[in-house]
Amino acid sequence: MSQSYNRGLIEDFGRWKEFSAGMWAWIFHKFTGWMLIGYLFTHIAVLSSALTGPEAYTNTIQGLESLFIIRVLEVGLLAVAVFHILNGLRLLMVDLGIGLDTQDKSFYASLVLTAIITVASVPTFMDGVTI
Amino acid sequence: MSTQQQKPNTQETPEDPEMKGAESPQQERLKEKESDMVDETSVDESELEGDTVLIKVFRYDPEVADKQEPRFDDFHVPFKKGMTVLDAVMYARDTYDSSLTFRHSCRQAVCGSDAFFVNGKQRLGCKTQISELEHPVRIEPLPHQEVVKDLVVDMDHFYDQMHTVEPYFQNEDTPDASDLEEQRQTRENREKVKMSTRCIWCGACMSSCNIAAGDNEYLGPAAINKAYRFAMDNREGEEIKEHRLRILEQEHGVWRCQTQFSCTEVCPKDIPLTEHIQELKREAVKKNLKFW
Ligand code: HEM
Ligand code: SF4
Ligand code: FES
């Protein structure tokens, strides 16, 4: 195989307006996957406050949950997780060779479902917090 | 190397054919052709409004001083019903600027030489109707391949990848020709490989692939589809199929595909490329799975 030229990536993402469904699905899946990994670390950090004792853990949780920004981030986390799971299922179908002709529609369906679930979760996440 | 990053500065080409200097027989013919065109359009003028299309064509030539900086040239081309992108650039070349360079041959989506980047998508010039595009029509060379001149890109790397998968029928024990025996393929098997046989080596798929752009060694959709065409053909033996799968399951083979569907979207021959790549992934897994 030849190694004739080094082709750059930059120009591709400069053309984001021209991306089609499959490409957006790929970008969102990467993004959400890595966001979930990132959350995992903060999650472990919060949980490990329990090592200091039950009080410390309760204080940490209560302190965080009283913050408006944390509630907003939780809604975001849910959106990211839901999209990753739904699109992950779509990708599993694609791997099995099922519904390849409608892959764009299943991507839009993932987006719509994610939006609905996220909106529906807002009252729960925002319960009892003041700005 | 990418040529798309530079900011092109638009430049109007002289539309006056008189500026072309001495008249050769060829040029005379071209002038005639042009006056024909002008006549036709003036006839139609009463019914047709806005009967010209503006095409913006990428220009670059490392050997000409004022074309070393990539730019776009504007051409106003008279529109005719049924006109393709290839027709438009041919008109521009024949009428306005004979140095405008691009490959074309069959004009019927068979030879695969005129894949361009039209309005942000890889398309076959001769198979793309001007009437289906947004105007002005922007015509560029295929991304991710070195530009040789104007719309001409270097296809060597693409061909290398195609040859890596040994794109030819391999079967040692063919029936004896002197007995006039035929090597039969079932109808079902023919249907299975039918779409994959339609590839015209235009390179549109490879150019559209984000993974191929980042990984120069990735075989790419066209080469994998080519391998599919033979691996799935049941006239080839099990052994050679295994050999083909060994090529495909290498690091830069089928597993690079991230199912972005870009290739399937642009293929002018409507080959379900992603589907074929996915099927080969499953074949590769099946070949390697052992339950003991
Ligand atoms: C039911 C839950 C989940 C499903 C169905 C799922 C599905 C998938 C699938 C199919 C892929 C492969 C995408 C490809 O083909 O390129 C993937 C990638 C990935 N997932 Fe998930 N996933 C789930 C949960 C998670 C969680 C909880 C995390 C994080 C802790 C996560 C992090 C990632 C990452 C980092 C990638 C790789 C992204 C990349 O290619 O760079 N996933 N997921
Ligand atoms: S698979 Fe389609 S897009 Fe790719 S080279 Fe063949 S005809 Fe062109
Ligand atoms: S000119 Fe042959 S494919 Fe377009």
From TrEMBL, chain A:
Alphabetized SUPFAM superfamilies for the sequence: Fumarate reductase respiratory complex transmembrane subunits
GO molecular function: electron transfer activity; metal ion binding
Residues annotated as transmembrane: 21-46, 66-86, 107-126
InterPro entries cross-referenced by the UniProt entry: SdhC_prok, SQR/QFR_C/D, Succ_DH_cytb556, SuccDH_FuR_B_TM-su
Location in the cell: Membrane
Pfam families linked: Sdh_cyt (PF01127)
GO aspect biological process, one term: tricarboxylic acid cycle
Cellular component, GO, one term: membrane
Protein name according to UniProt: Succinate dehydrogenase subunit C
NCBIfam families: succ_dehyd_cytB
Transmembrane among keywords: yes
From TrEMBL, chain B:
Domain 4Fe-4S ferredoxin-type, chain residue ranges per copy: 197-271
Region entry Disordered, spans: 1-47, 169-189
Start and end residues of each Succinate dehydogenase/fumarate reductase N-terminal domain: 55-159
Keywords: 2Fe-2S, 4Fe-4S, Iron, Iron-sulfur, Metal-binding, Oxidoreductase
GO biological process: respiratory electron transport chain; tricarboxylic acid cycle
Gene3D superfamilies tied to this protein: 3.10.20.30, Alpha-helical ferredoxin
Extent of Basic and acidic residues compositional bias: 17-36
Compositionally biased intervals (Polar residues): 1-12
Superkingdom classification of source: Archaea
Composition bias type Acidic residues, residue spans: 37-47
GO molecular function, one term: 4 iron, 4 sulfur cluster binding
Cofactor: [2Fe-2S] cluster; [4Fe-4S] cluster; [3Fe-4S] cluster
Similarity section: Belongs to the succinate dehydrogenase/fumarate reductase iron-sulfur protein family.
Name of the molecule in the record: Succinate dehydrogenase subunit B
